[in-house]
Amino acid sequence: MFKKILKSYDYSLIAAMVMLSLFGLIMIYSASMVSAVQYYNLGSSEYYYKKQIINLFVAGFVFIMAAIFPYKALLSKKILVPMVGLSLLGLLGIFVLGHTAGNAQSWYHFGSSSLQPSEFVKLAVIVYLAAAYAKKQSYINQFNKGAAPPIVYLILVCGLVAVQPDFGTAAIIFLIGGTIILCSGMNLRNLLRLAVMGLAASIPVLLLLGGKIFTQKKIDRFLVFFHSPFADESGSGYQMSNSLIAIGSGGLKGLGLGQGVQKLGYLTDGHTDFIMAVIAEELGVFGVGFVILCLSYIVLRGIYIGLRCKDPFGSLLAIGISGMIGIQSFINIGGVSGVIPLTGVPLPFVSYGGSSLVQLAISMGILVNVSMFVRFEKVYKNKDEEVVADMSPQPKNGFLQNRRG
């Protein structure tokens, strides 16, 4: 049995995640070796590189734990209720004990380490909505009883994240929730009613807290998007203009690993939100293509697992996790390249950050576990049923017919 379980794991998904994480480790060192000393005054060019190695070890451990933990156990109220409670408590506690960085009060600091609860809230939203709508399949089109209750948690979480203010993460969480709701099986009428309900709930929040959510810095990012960042190259368009210069300088092959210019004091967040710009400058189209190919494989493979899974909970989990990775990747790459307004979110598996990497590792562990159950039930369970059928006594007529054949 143990060997059958091991054979059922999706090792292609694991390989894509490992390759992206190791590639990200290399690029984090290249992107931060100058800024760690000159800009952040950390005293060592290897500071972020060494911390990311520790993050990778932690991520590897939690991935293994999540991969062997049966995903169906997440349906238990003993897990769901504390998960929802801790997610709300973590977001509320930020306003009392949180640390402000980058104009957002989004982190808890523990010595030299930090924790961003909104990263783990993404996973909590996926698990909760998947569990809620999986349990409500028999009456999901009854709006008051089936469709509406779970969205209250989604709106509350998005509001708490937005007022930190972290509009980019709030948008990602909202889109993740929307993806699960769209795939939950409810009819179009209820989907439209939920959209109206969400819009109605957001209006008073925007009226009361709009000034805190849409700070001048965020407004400037939208203005930079609609105008050329080079119009205010030393002001609001500074990061965006240097990002575009880095992307344009790389060309097909890039300048070479470690040979980038923009990281030398120009692109100060090259190891976090703008790591794709550093990859484009140093490794060109080939480096960017490698990252997009691996991320696309994980997303498409996750959707495929969700479509194959017969269990509604497992299916929504797989779609929610793959949707989260796809949405966040698009927002990061789109923002860095100027396709959409810049929001400042990390690139999955590649950017520096412990909270993001650990949360993604847990999510991938759950996805791999869903995939394992799908494959195990399809291959080995069906085979065992065929063996039992072959060993069972057959009617004489059937036996004679087989002999004659």
UniProtKB/TrEMBL annotation:
Q: Which Pfam families match?
A: FTSW_RODA_SPOVE
* UniProt membrane topology term: Multi-pass membrane protein
- Cellular compartments per GO CC: cell division site; plasma membrane
Q: Which residues cross the membrane?
A: 12-32, 52-71, 83-102, 114-134, 146-163, 169-188, 195-214, 283-304, 316-340, 352-374
EC number(s) per entry: 2.4.99.28
GO molecular function, a single term: peptidoglycan glycosyltransferase activity
The primary site where this protein sits is: membrane
Q: Where in the cell is it found?
A: Membrane
Q: What class of enzyme is it?
A: transferase
Q: What does this protein do?
A: Peptidoglycan polymerase that is essential for cell division.
Entry similarity comment: Belongs to the SEDS family. FtsW subfamily.
Name by which UniProt lists this protein = Probable peptidoglycan glycosyltransferase FtsW
Q: Which organism is it from?
A: Niallia nealsonii
What is this organism's lineage?
Answer: Bacteria, Bacillati, Bacillota, Bacilli, Bacillales
